[in-house]
Amino acid sequence: MAYSIVVLDDEPLILEGLTRRVDWTAMNCEVVGSASNGTVGKELLEQLRPDLVISDIKMPGLSGMELAELNYKHGYASKFIILTAYSDFAFAQKAIRYQVEDYILKPIDFQKLKEAVQKAISGIQEMERREQKVQKLEEGMKNTQELVTASLLFNIARYSSDSVDWEQEFLKNYMMFRQGVFLFVKLYNRNKEKEAGSLGNIQNEIVKRFLDQGTMILRGSADDKLIFLCQIETKVDTETARKRIVDLADRIMREIGAEEKMICTGVVSGVYRTKEELNDRYQEGIERLKESFFAVRSGVLVEMLPTEEPVEVALDGLLHHLKHGNLREMNEEYLALCKALRGAKDADYAAHVQKELHHQAAKVASGAGMVHKPAMEQRYLAANYDQLSRMLGSYLNAICQYIGSGQNLIGKVKLLVEECYGDSQFGLSAAADRLGVNNSYLSRLFKKETDENFVDYLVDVRIGKAEYLLKTTKLKNSEISAMVGFEDERYFGKVFKKKCGVTPRQYRESIT
Fold it and tell me: In this structure, which topology does domain 3-128 adopt according to CATH?
């Protein structure tokens, strides 16, 4: 079956070119509708529900971006491609918010259009493959009464589909999961090299720990998140029963997070009491789970944090200071950026901005002629917002310090300190070995050039990083001390007080 396409453009020549000049058949596609204004285009989307829409951004009636927004909200089409004469970061931000697959600049390069369409079709095919896998899995789960129930409940929850008579009778008579809650689990900062941290193993462990506590639980999907259905007995007050599950899940999330050295966050939905409420509770939980990207530690997200107004951030000021090696000003801009993104709590948008900033920073590093180019750490799977922010912050600091200090040996030492301060074994000897020089020579040169001992400089950097983490996170002192290169928390506290005049706890209290 060919993939259906709707083409929208108010310029007749372009519209004709898109419908006739492109060999759609070769790509297994068919143009099922076209229009020269957005209002008619909206009607086509509602009627035809095409696989792909290719739309001009400026049209009478509704613009291409307005149609993309409507498509994002209502899901008329699987994929959306915009034709535009604009190429700037602000446009890209808006496009990513409405999940636009791609945008093609005018005048149209038909080869690029073909590549964009093929990419979109590949995405649709991948979605179809996933749906087929889910369907096969659900069919295979119908061998026992419990697995049949899981399949039916999760299908109703996901798709809000009307069940047939025999399904209704089955659910009516099967009391165990007549009412319950969904548990959604998201894993962040998993070490790539730890096989024990695989999703399947963690899913099994969660089920085991719930069953050990006498709580019946059904497992759902295990793609980028884990989904479970927890039983609530009909004879128990629902809110009391839900709180018990929240407390149990919170304890299990914290235990697994500590054992696997990652952040394991969960969301417990409201209680469903009827089949019709299944989909509502499921969708609420899925939406709430997006907040987990901003979680700072393992556990269940209990309170919904207030979301600030959507932000449109600009990177110009930050990049200006980065290019000129203005470390303090660059860090101030970056701290403000991180605060704005956290306040908005739009996970997709925050990740997009971080990716764009990383890309622009890499260009700055290349333009500065850096011999030793820093790189973002790749030790984690699905890093959360704080981890990504810290890694990106270290990356920006390394570039800024290099540009500010030049390519001399001391500049390289400072760059190395910025990269390795979190390693408790890093010191003068390690730095000298990495740079291929003698310990004594490096120590004397550093003192001569900076009027500061290397060890004192390293301690100052570590304490400065600790101050930043105390300001911007809720991490424990023991966690912060380890992250900035101190093995002993008590020694970290002594050094911090000596440098700052107060203990880490007093410092945090003074800024809150």
Answer: Rossmann fold (3.40.50)
